[in-house]
Amino acid sequence: MLEQISSYLRRHEGMILGIAFLSVALFLGNKYLNYEAAATNKVAQQAQAIAAQQQVIVNNLTQQLQTAQQHSDALVAHLAANDAKQEAEIANLKATLAQKQQQVQVEPLPEVAAEWNSQIKIPDGVRNTPTGLTITEAAARATVEELIEVPTLQNEVDDLKQMVDDASTTIESQQTTIKAADDLAASLKVQITDDNAAHAKEITALKAAARKSKFKIFWIGYGLGFVSREAIYLGTGR
Fold first, then answer.
1. Per-residue pLDDT tens for 199-211?
2. Where are the domains of the chain?
């Protein structure tokens, strides 16, 4: 029996070495595929973790932008209300002033003198006489002071209105910036979703290829083992 086995081994030494080589190759190949599968899973997990982090960042950015948009909208509404109120007050003041100016054009001189004294706050500074209105020195000076102050007051009103307009323009620009950032965040969300889908598809394909290769090695190994067994049985006469 031992001589038969020894004779068989000598006659089929090349075949046996080939089978042994193929067996080792299949073993190493299977190890390599296992390593590749583990590496693929690791890459998949890292990609999913990165995608999750990106999603959290985009969600936080979106929330911050929404909060900023709400604050900006509230501020714009407040400024618009103040602007409308000031515009109404200015318009009302102008209308009242125009009405008084028209009244002065037609009022009797005693009433004009009374209104004049009321404006400069000097009783009897202006008097109605048979020859017309007379004005004291103090009343004249007070009148000039009031006239000098009018352009300054008008400039202050104009400056205040300009400040409100500038603030409104700044807020509108800020709203445009927030809207652009919000659009960018939405675009990033879509991109992350598409990237996740592409990564998932690629990882699925890699896993399927790895399983297919392992199945091939399994059947090759199975066939090689079967052939080796039959060859040994044939050589030993069993």
1. 777 777 766 766 6
2. 2-236
Question: How far from 139 is each of 97, 105, 129, 145, 149, CA to CA, in Å?
Answer: 21, 20, 16, 10, 15
Please give the structure tokens belonging to residue 151: 């352009």
pLDDT band at 137 (very low <50, low <70, confident <90, very high): very high
DSSP string for residues in 66-126: HHHHHHHHHHHHHHHHHHHHHHHHHHHHHHHHHHHHHHHHHS-HHHHHHHHHHHHT-TTSE
pLDDT at position 181 is 74
Q: How many other CB atoms sit within 10 Å of the CB of residue 178? A: 19
CATH class of 2-236: mainly alpha
Structure tokens at 234: 């044939």
